[in-house]
Structure formats: structure tokens, C-alpha cells
Design brief:
Shape: globular
CATH superfamily: ACT domain
CATH topology: Alpha-Beta Plaits
CATH architecture: 2-Layer Sandwich
Structural class: alpha+beta
Helix content: 10-25%
Length: 141
Amino acid sequence: MTEMENTSAYIVENADPLILKVSFLNIKDSKENPYLLVVKSASIECIRLTIYPIEKEKIIKISFSGTDTTENFLDSLSKFLQGFKVLHTSGLLKKGDHFYYECYLNLNKSDVKYKDLIVSIDKIRYIFKEIKIEEIGLKKA
């Protein structure tokens, strides 16, 4: 791609499973980042893949849901996220009166900072209807 191009594209036949050939020449050093976080977002209109080079074999995904989308909610969520390295976020999704938000953190359960995460979540838990924490690990082929 040239400096003017932000994206590239090609067309393949629709098949299941779809095998994509993707070059990672422009991505950070693979020795420092031996893993790839692949985030898939799917709807009936499209599937979007976002791929991040990462150094850890496991990371944390946090899912939030609730009904409060006031400024208090947004401020609390923003302050919470500032304490952690966010790899990817879904953005705020609103369906009816419920909202959903997901983020992937460069952190795993064995990190010292994981305890800080739990303490921080406990401080803002009252704002959300549900908070789910899961550790995403290496998927074997």
C-alpha cells in the first residue's frame, strides 16, 4: 500500500471455512509480539476482523451491560479504562434500553495488576447490570 491508501481489498469466493492469506509485513516485530489477537465482529451484513500483534498468550476480555448511559456511566467507564492498556474496544452498542460494551486488556489473570483490575471493577460495579470477565487464551489449530 502507498501512503495515500488506508485499506486494501480483494475478492474471493464465499466458502466455509474461508481461508484468507494475509501478509503481516507491516506489523511489529514478531519476536517481541509472537501472538495475534484476532477480534471478530459479525452481523448478517458483514464480518469484520481486527488483528493485533501481542506479546502475551492470554489476555482479559471484559463485557459490560446495563441501562444507564448517563454522563456518570461514561465518566466512570473512562476513568476505569485509563488504568489499563486497552488493546481493543467494541465501542458502545445500544439495543433498546440496554447497552453493551466490550474491551480487551493487555493483562492476564497471572499478572500482578489483575488484582487492581478486580478492585477497580468493584468500585464501578453498581453502574452495570452485568460485568463478565474472561481470560482469552491461545487457540490451537
